[in-house]
């Protein structure tokens, strides 16, 4: 009987430990600090916050990440370079929103214009899971991406 009880306590402790987020991840699984490579190969540092009750993308509250570049000039480029920078950002964001095998369409020309109830931004669609999309909105000043808001879509993306 003692062995069974010890196993139960150990199993409960393991489950609780696994539920605690890794210190390198912000609330909700988004990295609070990191970097994304730009079209010139430079590492652009960012800071990220999480809003768990955001209505930015939809009329319904949901979790949204707000990624802000520490040096806004780092993600600046010509129009073609800006598309490359957006794709690099999308690649990083996609890892936080679904399974590793989701195979999101992250190139700018592959983004969908919307998803169900979406008010702003674009939608990144998973090729493997049709019901999974990521809403994304880039804040651009001049020729530079300064901030990116991202969150899950209600369903998959829509044309």
Please indicate the count of domains.
1
Helicity range of the residues? 10-25%
**Largest sheet composition:** 6 strands, antiparallel
- What's the mean pLDDT score? 83
Gross geometry: globular
Mind explaining what this structure looks like?
The protein is an alpha+beta fold and 159 residues long. The protein has one domain (23-158). It has two helices and eight strands; from the N terminus they run H-E-E-E-H-E-E-E-E-E. It has helices at 2-19, 79-97, and strands at 33-37, 43-54, 62-69, 114-115, 122-125, 133-141, 144-152, 157-158. A six-stranded antiparallel beta sheet has the order 1-2-3-7-6-5. A hairpin with a 2-residue loop joins strand 6 (133-141) and strand 7. 30% of the residues are buried. Residues 1-27 have low confidence and may be disordered.
